[in-house]
Amino acid sequence: MPSHQLVVADAALRGREGRWQLGIDGGRIATVTQDVLSGATEVDAAGGLVTESFANGHMHLDKVHTLDRIGDAALTAYTAGDMGSALHSIELASAVKADYDRSWIEPNARKAVLQAVRHGVRHVLAFADVDTKARLEGVIPLLALRDEFRGVVDLQVVAFPQDGLLCDPGAEDLVREAVELGADVVGGIPWIEHTDAEAREHVRRMCALAAQHDRRVAMLVDDAGDPNLRTTEMLATAMLEHGLEGRGVANHARALGLYPRPSLERLAGLARRAGLGFVSDPHTGSLHLPVRELTSMGLPVALGQDDIEDAYYPFGRHNMAEVAFLAAHALGAFDQPGLDLLYDAVTTTAARVLGVPDHRLEPGGAADLVVHEHASVRAVLAHHAPPVHVIASGKVVP
């Protein structure tokens, strides 16, 4: 009789010499051994690298494939120079919401989710604009896709007040309604408000809402070339004040790349106390947070796809190996420690930032895996091809 429900045979594993066999039962990794195993279903890795599946720490899923609707004026503003025009780009990009409708948002988002399936992306922090222009037209189809793809691609749907709270009266009520409909995460973008006091109030209200409904928070902070914004600090402080330790994500935080070292170290200390995770998307802008420096300070930093063919980025295949490949160039991370850090940033570290438990290739870990054609992290990133096999919840995805 087979000893396991699923066996992955002849696998190369990170940091371990030789070939390995994985036994999987009940959606969990039961054993990792060099002994021969038998299974009701068997996957031959043929010497290819097997790792934890991918996680996408930041994705504007309701906006994918909308670039042709909006044109590239916002794209030009967002990516120019030192990102000083980031606010103007958001204003330009909001034109797409003039005819926001779930009838076309759903098929676009579905296409991106199917791309995630193909590329072994198991977890996605999926933002949906919730404001007085978008209303709930973006969040509703994402909630439906979340339920449909659960167990293959798990979407954490973020109710995201893209146009602010104080400067968009009515948005707060819509975010609250989205949470009551089932949104998993409370979003925010405090730097878009007109004053520091309003930015701080934006963060306070969204953290209070998250605490009230037992939700996590994820906010776009310091997403412009101005080190005086300091909204990452506001987020970490509010998390501590509202009992959200370990339940928050700072997305982008680009201005941290302009901080003097003493300011960066002080913020890192506060972020560690708050249990704040970070997500960088260095391929979608000319400025990015200092990934390697924050990691050396003991902070988890993930990578995100961020955008797919929208007003901020003209490319994207929901391929996190490709995102890590691009990040290696943007961050100058070409040595083996740098490549390993980036691969972690789209697998294990990304899962940690998103609050996903047990995302580890060891006995007891979740059986969410990818089987690559190539045998090393460097080769996998160099080719950034789709996995040969994707295993989700202990089952081979057809």
Summarize the structure.
With 398 residues, this protein is an alpha/beta fold.
Write the layout of secondary structure elements.
Elements: E1 4-13, E2 16-25, E3 28-33, E4 39-44, E5 50-52, E6 54-60, H1 67-70, H2 73-79, H3 86-93, H4 102-118, E7 121-129, H5 139-149, E8 154-160, H6 171-181, E9 185-188, H7 196-212, E10 216-221, H8 231-241, E11 248-252, H9 261-274, E12 276-280, H10 291-296, E13 301-303, H11 320-331, H12 336-345, H13 348-353, E14 369-371, H14 377-383, E15 389-392, E16 395-396
Parallel strand pairs: 1-4, 6-7, 7-8, 8-9, 9-10, 10-11, 11-12, 12-13
Antiparallel strand pairs: 1-2, 2-3, 5-14, 14-15, 15-16
Helix pairs in contact: 2-3, 4-5, 7-8, 8-9, 11-12, 11-14
Identify the CATH class of the largest domain. Answer: Alpha Beta
CATH topology of the largest domain: TIM Barrel
Number of β-strand runs: 16
- What are the segments in which pLDDT stays under 50 over at least 5 consecutive residues? none
Number of helices: 14
Report the end-to-end length measured between terminal Cα atoms.
25 Å
Basic shape = globular
Residue fraction in strands: 15-25%
Output the strand order for the largest sheet.
6-7-8-9-10-11-12-13
Q: Per CATH, which architecture of the largest domain? A: Alpha-Beta Barrel
How many strands, which pairing sense, and closed or not: the largest β-sheet? 8 strands, parallel
Overall number of structural domains: 2
Q: What is the multimeric organization of the chains shown?
A: single chain
Which structural category do the helix and sheet elements fall into? alpha/beta
Mean pLDDT: 96
